[in-house]
Design a protein that fits this description.
Elements: E1 2-9, H1 14-25, E2 30-36, E3 41-46, H2 53-62, E4 66-70, H3 81-102, H4 120-137, H5 139-150, H6 156-179, H7 191-215, H8 217-223, E5 229-234, E6 237-242, E7 251-254, E8 263-268, E9 270-274, H9 276-279, E10 285-288, E11 292-293, E12 298-299, E13 304-310, H10 316-328, H11 333-362, H12 367-380, H13 384-403, E14 406-408, H14 413-416, E15 422-426, H15 427-431, E16 437-443, H16 449-460, H17 466-477, E17 486-491, E18 495-500, E19 503-508, H18 510-515, H19 523-531, E20 535-541, E21 544-552, H20 559-568, E22 572-576, H21 581-591, E23 595-597, H22 602-614, E24 619-623, H23 629-634, E25 637-641, E26 654-656, H24 662-697, H25 709-728
Parallel strand pairs: 15-22, 15-24, 22-23, 24-25, 25-26
Antiparallel strand pairs: 1-3, 1-4, 2-3, 5-6, 5-7, 7-13, 8-11, 8-13, 9-10, 9-12, 14-26, 16-21, 17-18, 18-19, 19-20, 20-21
């Protein structure tokens, strides 16, 4: 299975996106498609043995839309200036048209040639000419409406097109009657209705476009982080090149005041860098030879040479942008409900408008009144606001998440997070920094302490566990070299084994002592280390314990405040750890976590998550993203606390790229506000249609309340703007 994200041109409402989605999902070879109305793209999973990009694009065309090629997330284009100029011109023409058609009704001075009472034929021709200009302006609407009707996926454009063409044809008939001398039709021309409906639809889309662009600001900011060019060193000379010209392995140069062009590794020099856009760390960070640099980080004060490692779409920034785009192309459950309703909405409105037209004609209320009512229903019932209600709120919220250092991989998470009632935390590296240090050594052998720690450190160097880093840091400080380790073996949840100079060493917690049935006479020393909050490592040689090493950790900043906030919001907090009860309780009591479960193996973490879910609890698991992957996968939401450079290999649903635990509470808060906002949007969209369609049908006509197509089109714009304005309120979340 492969995935492709295509730009889709011609979508104007949720009926469009739903129709295209249904059409694509029916095609042989397409496994699943998700259409994003706000981002105007389609994420398509397909069988590469059956389909390729060209065939998929043919399906898009068959459905009545156009593919703009692969979605290039790093090239978000700005709006065309011609569109703005064209809109201004037609705004002026709209005023002129309204003045000519309605000025005489409110006693405004009217030129003789445009006076409907004195020159009805000239008056009719002037309205026709101006309306034809608007029909040309709205050709894309009429064309899409016709195509979507032909392809049996009627949408907003279909409603507008039928209404506009019906009104225009009736007005042409009225004009013919005027030309042959029947001036009674002068006041029954609806040319201006056709024109103004198109104008207001265009107005709505123009404003929608501006506001949709605002929802993409977070992505644009990420895109603009990286520079457009870089300095490459070749044959001893410096040359400025574009990012597209950079190849893996190229040696690039960064000087003070410049940004890093691509992810890479420093080969010479050192400098302080601002990486706050990824890590959230406000202080400049020193980087030197052998260390990594991230594309977009700002070089404050040093000259460095660095080797390009991740270029183009492989870079950390590109990876974040890609994940945001993919997240926006998934649908939350609440969005699927709205899509289903709006998918049936257009055919129902078409049926209502036709039935109303027939009833008016049968009741003898006049052809002009019947057609005007028919057009009004079609225009006022436009499902645009319904289509924007959910996706717009989701995209805005994803931007808010990015600004808060939260990378959400699926939009459904923004709904699920509001229901979380239990959060399970891994201890080391999650509630604590995982930056361990050796606190105390009980050496029961005749080996020198330094030599003992060198042996242990050399074996620990073979692992990725934070405990191993504590020994490596010690060896670096003491300038101790790593020893050659043979026959290394990792025993998950227990410890590790390695041979140095043909001598076998076993390292691990108390469970490994029990596993190998080793006699343990050092329980008191273990308890003393545990009391002081240490994680404990037994060192075994020749079936004998030769040392007991205590390693301790630092609780993360904001951990206590975050747990306190979660507890206050009735969210149960649980800490899982492989440490013994005494060590675990020191950390757990310090941060006041609800429940502590010690002595847990990695596979047992997943079982605990399953049991909690069996109790009908909505569970979030917070871990390191790799070692805790089974537990993360089994939870309702898997959250990893880690740096931005690991994003590409992470398997969780949410990544806290700023390594800040307070982001968990922020995510839940954003989720609750997003769900509330979507419900408000859907209410207003449905309320609008429930209220306006009966009025458009003329139910209140007996008491003197009615609307015409122009008022209907204005109301349609107002409905969409209400939803947009409400969704944009989410940007104020902090």
């Amino acid at each position: 299975m492969k995935n492709i994200i295509l730009v889709i041109e011609g979508m104007t409402c949720s009926a469009c996106s739903n129709g295209l989605e249904k059409y694509l999902n029916k095609q042989n070879g397409i496994i699943n498609s998700n259409i994003n109305l706000v981002m105007a793209n389609a994420s398509i999973d397909y069988d590469e043995k059956i389909l390729d990009q060209e065939k998929i694009e043919k399906y898009v065309k068959q459905a009545g839309f156009k593919s703009g090629g692969i979605f290039k997330e790093l090239k978000i284009e700005k709006k065309n200036k011609n569109e703005k100029i064209k809109f201004i011109v037609f705004s002026i023409l709209a005023v002129v048209l309204m003045y000519i058609s309605m000025g005489h009704m409110i006693n405004l001075p009217v030129l003789y040639i445009f006076d409907p009472h004195k020159n009805p034929i000239t008056y009719a021709y002037s309205l026709l000419i101006l309306t034809l200009l608007f029909l040309i302006y709205g050709y894309d609407i009429l064309k899409n409406g016709y195509k979507n009707l032909i392809h049996k996926i009627p949408n907003m454009d279909t409603l507008v097109s039928i209404g506009v063409i019906s009104s225009f044809i009736y007005s042409l008939y009225g004009m013919y009657r005027i030309i042959i001398g029947d001036y009674s039709y002068t006041m029954n021309l609806y040319f201006e209705s056709s024109a103004i409906v198109i104008y207001f639809v265009k107005l709505g889309r123009y404003l929608d476009g501006i506001n949709k662009d605002k929802t993409k600001e977070a992505i644009k900011k990420l895109v603009e982080i990286t520079p457009n060019q870089a300095t490459i060193e070749k044959d001893g000379k410096e040359k400025v090149i574009t990012l597209d010209e950079i190849k893996k392995g190229n040696i690039l140069i960064s000087k003070p005041g410049e940004k890093i062009a691509v992810d890479g590794e420093i080969v010479e020099g050192k400098a302080h860098f601002d990486e706050s856009f990824i890590t959230g760390e406000s202080k400049p960070i020193m980087r030197e030879a052998g260390q990594k640099v991230i594309a977009g980080s700002f070089n404050y004060d040093g000259f460095i040479r660095y080797k390009a490692e991740k270029i183009g779409r492989e870079s950390t920034v590109s990876e974040i942008v890609r994940l945001v785009i993919e997240a926006s192309n998934t649908k939350a459950p609440i969005a699927k409900i709205a899509d289903e309703i709006s998918g049936h909405f257009v055919p129902i409105v078409l049926a209502i408008s036709v039935i109303t037209l027939v009833i008016y004609l049968l009741l003898g209320l006049g052809v002009s009144t019947a057609i005007s009512t028919f057009v009004t229903i079609l225009v006022v019932a436009c499902p645009c606001s319904l289509g924007l209600a959910t996706p717009l709120a989701i995209v805005v919220s994803e931007g808010v998440c990015i600004n808060n250092g939260i990378l959400v991989k699926k939009s459904e998470i923004l709904e699920t997070a509001s229901k979380i009632d239990t959060i399970v935390f891994d201890k080391t590296g999650t509630l604590t920094y995982g930056k361990l240090k050796i606190a105390k050594v009980h050496n029961y052998s005749n080996i020198d302490k330094k030599e003992l720690l060198q042996i242990v450190g050399s074996i620990e160097a073979k692992t990725t566990h934070p405990i191993g880093k504590a020994f490596l840091d010690y060896m670096e400080e003491e300038k101790l070299n790593k020893l050659v380790v043979d026959n290394f073996e990792n025993i998950s949840g227990y410890g590790i084994i390695g041979e140095i100079q043909n001598q076998k060493y076993i390292l691990g917690n108390r469970k490994i002592v029990e596993k190998y049935s080793i006699s343990n006479t050092h329980i008191e020393d273990e308890q003393e280390l545990s009391t002081n909050g240490n994680s404990i490592i037994y060192v075994i040689r020749d079936e004998e314990i030769i040392a007991l090493i205590g390693v301790n950790d630092i609780v993360r900043e904001n951990a206590k405040d975050t747990i306190e906030k979660l507890n206050k919001n009735n969210i149960k907090t649980i800490m899982l750890t492989g440490d013994n009860k005494e060590t675990a309780e020191i950390i757990g009591n310090e941060i006041k976590i609800t429940k502590i479960i010690p002595n847990v193996l990695p596979k047992e973490k997943s079982e605990i998550i399953k049991k909690l879910k069996e109790e009908n609890r909505k569970v979030m698991m917070c871990g390191d993203g790799i070692n805790d992957s089974p537990a993360l996968a089994n939870s309702d939401i898997g959250v990893s606390v880690k740096g931005g450079t690991d994003i590409a290999i992470d398997s969780s649903d949410v990544i806290l790229i700023k390594n800040d635990l307070s982001s968990i509470f922020k995510l839940i808060n954003i989720s609750k506000n997003t769900v509330r906002n979507i419900k408000q949007n859907l209410f207003w969209a449905f309320f609008y249609n429930v209220l306006m369609i009966p009025i458009a049908m003329g139910i209140l006509r007996p008491i003197g309340i009615s609307i015409n197509p122009m008022i209907a089109s204005l109301a349609m714009v107002f409905s969409s703007l209400t939803v947009i304005a409400n969704a944009l309120r989410l940007k104020k979340l902090k």
